[in-house]
């Protein structure tokens, strides 16, 4: 089991990881070794609570395809083991981000003192500009 929070967990069997060849520089090592990890996580078929599934599927994320599968490629490290750990950590962070509840904004009003202060400053600025005028 992979812990996302104290109440949310996913089973390791729900995650499909395949080793693939990494892109980019690295010489012969890149051409010979399957060190990158291709992670697939089916959101709809997972054991996550329904409200979290809906949040994840409604997010505008290019890593979620039309079938509702989260696809991630981890190739930052040279070894397969490090990339596997990195992919899993990135998945957990992505799901944990959906668990965060945004605070609702409380509408506020400008205080009476702040309004008076602003009007006073505007009047002073106007008087300053009046003194700059040419006297006829």
TrEMBL record:
Prokaryotic-type class I peptide chain release factors domain ranges (all copies): 21-37
EC number: 3.1.1.29
Protein name (database record): Aminoacyl-tRNA hydrolase
Keywords for this protein: Hydrolase
Region called Disordered, residue ranges: 106-136
SUPFAM superfamilies xref list: Release factor (SSF75620)
EC supergroup of this enzyme: hydrolase
Pfam families tied to this protein: RF-1
Family: Belongs to the prokaryotic/mitochondrial release factor family.
InterPro entries registered for this protein in UniProt: Pep_chain_release_fac_I, Pep_chain_release_fac_I_sf
GO MF entries: peptidyl-tRNA hydrolase activity
